[in-house]
Specification:
Blueprint lengths: L4 H31 L3 E10 L5 E12 L3 E3 L1 H10 L3 H23 L4 E5 L11 H7 L7 E6 H5 L3 H13 L2 E7 L8 H4 L4 E4 L1 H4 L7 H15 L3 E4 L5 H9 L4 E2 L10 H11 L1
Parallel strand pairs: 2-4, 4-5, 5-6, 6-7, 7-8, 8-9
Antiparallel strand pairs: 1-2, 1-9, 2-3
Bound molecules: ligand C2E and calcium ion (3 copies).
One calcium ion binds next to loops.
């Protein structure tokens, strides 16, 4: 209310200031983190529902801050995007994931893939992702790039060219958080997309006769008819898995199968279940 404006302002200023200081400290810490090697990746298995096999994993970044302990990517990735540090962090993630997929292909076969999250800003730089893969003797098919709908909705020439280069190299593309961002689906005709990732919010309350189940079934039908496959995220229960499986969903990931794992734990799991 207007007549409260003055007091409200005075009241909120310190809080805003503290938040701003916290952010600026975090962003200078982020810069340090790269140099001081405070990031690492964990890998969440992606399970093929028809067979139970694990032929893919999603790489997720972790930050162990020396004083503040674990900081969630949900907190620092947006800040890294604002400060443009995301390009360096993203480059680090990509290189690490590529090294890992090389090792896991040697152990588990050449069809093993790692999927990597990429922020829209990473499409603005001139990093040569394809060249990096090829330089290590890996096929493009080793990597799935996860992007969000927003990137495709305002895709300029730079973005389109990168996506075309991915297609030519065999790098696959997944739409992350599918269904949460925008109502337009026209980008599905324009770009070569390999996977739709059903967002956790559609999986959380999945039940027989639920509207979420209808939505999941519709996404699967649409995806398959357009030549795409579907990965469900956030699968936490046997019932969710069974419903998604019956709906024809191709892949799933979530705590029901495994949390994001360290390299050692991932290898232990694969030794058990393949
Ligand atoms: P996302 O790409 O949608 O990743 C899925 C998130 O769901 C991950 O959170 C994962 O740990 C969590 N998750 C997996 N299974 C379950 C489940 O069964 N239940 C629930 N409730 N959650 C589950 P995380 O690792 O905290 O990452 C959060 C977000 O941070 C990611 O969302 C992604 O947008 C971003 N992120 C993480 N790593 C990177 C990265 O290397 N680069 C970029 N650009 N973004 C990243
Ligand atoms: Ca993702
Ligand atoms: Ca997602
Ligand atoms: Ca999500």
């Amino acid at each position: 209310a207007k007549n409260q404006g003055r007091n409200a302002w005075r009241y909120f200023t310190p809080a805003l200031q503290i938040a701003a200081e916290h952010r600026s400290r975090t962003s200078s810490d982020l810069r340090e983190a790269l140099v001081r090697d405070q990031f690492h990746l964990v890998y969440q298995p992606i399970v093929e529902l028809a067979t139970g096999r694990i032929r893919k994993a999603e790489a997720l970044i972790r930050w162990q801050h020396p004083q503040r302990g674990f900081i969630s990517p949900a907190e620092f990735i947006p800040l890294a995007e604002e400060t443009r540090l995301i390009r360096e962090i993203g480059g680090w993630v990509f290189e690490r994931a590529v090294e890992q997929v090389a090792a896991w292909q040697a152990a588990y076969g050449a069809d093993f893939q790692i999927s990597v999250n990429k922020s829209p800003l990473q499409f603005k730089g001139d990093e040569d992702w394809v060249g990096y893969l090829v330089g290590l003797g890996l096929s493009g098919h080793s990597i799935v790039v996860e992007i969000t709908e927003g990137l495709l909705l305002d895709a300029d020439e730079q973005v389109s060219n990168k996506l075309l280069a991915f297609r030519d190299a065999g790098i696959q593309v997944a739409i992350d958080d599918f269904g949460t961002g925008y109502s337009s689906l026209s980008y599905l005709k324009k770009f070569d997309i390999d996977y739709l990732k059903i967002d956790q919010s559609f999986v959380r309350n999945l039940a027989p006769d639920s509207s979420d189940l209808v939505l999941c079934e519709a996404i699967v039908t649409m995806a398959h008819r357009l030549g795409m496959q579907v990965i469900a995220e956030g699968v936490e229960t046997r019932e969710q898995r069974d419903l998604l499986s019956a709906a024809g969903c191709d892949f799933a990931q979530g705590y029901w199968f495994a949390k994001p794992l360290s390299v050692a734990d991932f290898e232990t799991m694969l030794a058990k279940v393949g």
